[in-house]
Amino acid sequence: MTEQQPYDLLRTEGSLELRRYPAHLVAETEVVADFQDAGNRAFRYLFGYITGHNTARQSIAMTAPVVQARSQRIAMTAPVVQTGSDGRYTVAFVLPSSLDEASAPLPLRSEVSLRTVPARLVAARRFTGRWSESAYKKHRDEFLSAVTDAGLTAIGEPWFARFNPPSTPWFLRHNEVLIEVAEV
User: Fold this and answer.
1) Which domains are assigned to the chain?
2) Is 90 exceeded by the pLDDT of residue 51?
């Protein structure tokens, strides 16, 4: 079974969940692509890292989710996400909770980097369906309205998380849109 990123569920309001994530390590890469192709382009670099293309030649267990966010030209303290601007997306694998920057093998490819994401408070909304930009935007817009309606203050940009392999039928896929929020 695939390890899932741990978090504490603090409260639920309708389809919105308020979660506290502990600090965690990600392997990430930035790609220039459209929303739907970004994950595919990044996957080969990230999958290479976890299957032994690292300084220890060590395989690392796959975890969920894979996150995608618009790349930001500021210091990224944002989530493990698929994000993007000007066709640039950062795609990341959340690494097993047993790893930190001191114990994780270094990537051999310059396209892959390791980053510790600090602990944070996050609003999340689950949805099923295809990994398309239109589905993400629809759920993102509804989600951001729910965040405001819940009296939460969003910090930064939302990100997209995928939990299933591509072989999973689209109607069974677990996806999420997330955003960091200010402490309440």
Assistant:
1) 3-181 (3.20.80.10)
2) yes
